[in-house]
Structure formats: structure tokens, C-alpha cells
Design a protein that fits this description.
five-stranded antiparallel β-sheet; mainly beta; globular; signal; 2 helices; 228 residues
Length: 228
């Protein structure tokens, strides 16, 4: 287990401030929620459901559909998509309470594996979509029942994004697979903190499936190198 470094403490403090600010902005929605779920490989279960009220689920174009669901302890997380699956929102909360967080248009939401949630002191949920340049991911973070969306969208030119704890800090990192060349003959993993800074990259591998720990890619932080 890696020791907590000054950089790790700074990232944790930054995330705490970000989540608190997002919670204040959303206070008018009067909705809350807690934390904990299974590891990153448990991306959620399909829950096909529809509703005729777009205000209730955040859809912009009807019919609205719950595309995927996950749980963090007693908190239920639902990914709600519009009819074209190009706009989505996360509905977070237990019975009688919910908070809707907009994901926006990041591509076409994946019918399978669109949602992954990772429990930690700072929990996170990742929403994935296919776009013209590869797979895109948006992250929503939560701490002490306060949730907010990160502005950055993560891109994987090799079609793989996942949440996993790489640095052994209080929250997961975003692990993306990138083509090492235009032909994508080799790929490497690029790791980001939740606030968007690069942790490092792995060496090249023959395919995404060959990355260490696939399908939940995991690599020791000490083995990461500066990204080219």
C-alpha cells in the first residue's frame, strides 16, 4: 500500500472542496444520499423502465428509460437516458429522496456497461458513451452524501475507461486505454486523478485485453511512467 504523499493530500482536499461546492449548488433540489457498492467490475444491472414524466427523471426527449442501475450501500444510482440515449442524467438517492445530476451529451450511452460506481471515502460513478473519437466518460463524485459532476470528460481512443484505486488514496482514479499509434497496434493505460491531473502511463501492450488486471485494469502507481 503506497504512503499518502503531499500530492495525495492536496488532491483529496481539492476533491472535498469540489464536492462541497457542488452540494451547495444543488441544495435547492432538497435531495440526498449516502455511500458503498461492489468493486469496479460490478458495473450495475440492467433495469429497463420508462416514465412519462421527464421532470422526474431528467430526460430531455421522451420516452425516458432507466438504462442501468447500481447501489452504493443503501443509495440507489440510476442512469436515465432519453429516447436516443444521447443525453443522460444520474438519479441518486434512496426511497423518498433523489438528486438528479445532468451528464449531458457525450456520445451514445452504452447499452451495456454504461454505468460503474466505486465506493470509497470519496465515492464516484462513471458514465460511459461511444463517440466519433472513441469512448468518452463523465464522472460524478460523492462524499458524505453530497454529490457533484466533474466538468472534464475523459476520452479513450482504444475504447476502455474504468474507475479503480491506483494511488491508494481516499478515492478511485480514472483509468483509460489509449492507442499508442494511429493504427492502434499497441495500447497503453493512462491514469488520471478525479480532479483531472495525469498520474502516469503504463508501457505499451498488444491490446486492451493484455493490460494488467483486465477487465478491471490495475497497475502499481510505482510502475507508471510519464506520458509521452
Amino acid at each position: 500500500m503506497a504512503r499518502r504523499t503531499p500530492r495525495t493530500v492536496l488532491v483529496t482536499a481539492t476533491l472535498g472542496a469540489l464536492v462541497f461546492a457542488g452540494a451547495v449548488a444543488g441544495a435547492a433540489l432538497t435531495r440526498t444520499d449516502p455511500a458503498p457498492t461492489p468493486p469496479p467490475s460490478a458495473a450495475g444491472t440492467t433495469a429497463p423502465a420508462t416514465t412519462s414524466d421527464p421532470r422526474a427523471d431528467g430526460c430531455l426527449r421522451e420516452p425516458c428509460r432507466v438504462l442501468r442501475t447500481a447501489t452504493l450501500g443503501d443509495t440507489r444510482v440510476e442512469l436515465v437516458a432519453d429516447s436516443g440515449a444521447k443525453t443522460g442524467r444520474l438519479r441518486i438517492g434512496g426511497p423518498g429522496t433523489s438528486r438528479v445530476i445532468e451528464i449531458g451529451e457525450i456520445g451514445v450511452l452504452l447499452p451495456e456497461g454504461a454505468l460503474q460506481c466505486y465506493p470509497a471515502s470519496i465515492s464516484a460513478c462513471l458514465v460511459r458513451a461511444e463517440g466519433t473519437r472513441g469512448q468518452t466518460g463523465k464522472v460524478v463524485v460523492g462524499r458524505s452524501g453530497k454529490w457533484s459532476s466533474l466538468e472534464r470528460a475523459y476520452l479513450s481512443t482504444a475504447g476502455y475507461i474504468v474507475l479503480n484505486n491506483i494511488v491508494a488514496d481516499s478515492g478511485p482514479e480514472v483509468v483509460t486505454a489509449q492507442c499508442s499509434s494511429e493504427s492502434c497496434g499497441t495500447v497503453h493505460a493512462q491514469v488520471f486523478t478525479l480532479v483531472g491531473s495525469t498520474v502516469g502511463c503504463t508501457r505499451g501492450y498488444s491490446s486492451v485485453e493484455a493490460l494488467p488486471g483486465y477487465p478491471a485494469v490495475e497497475v502499481a502507481a510505482s510502475r507508471l511512467r510519464p506520458c509521452a
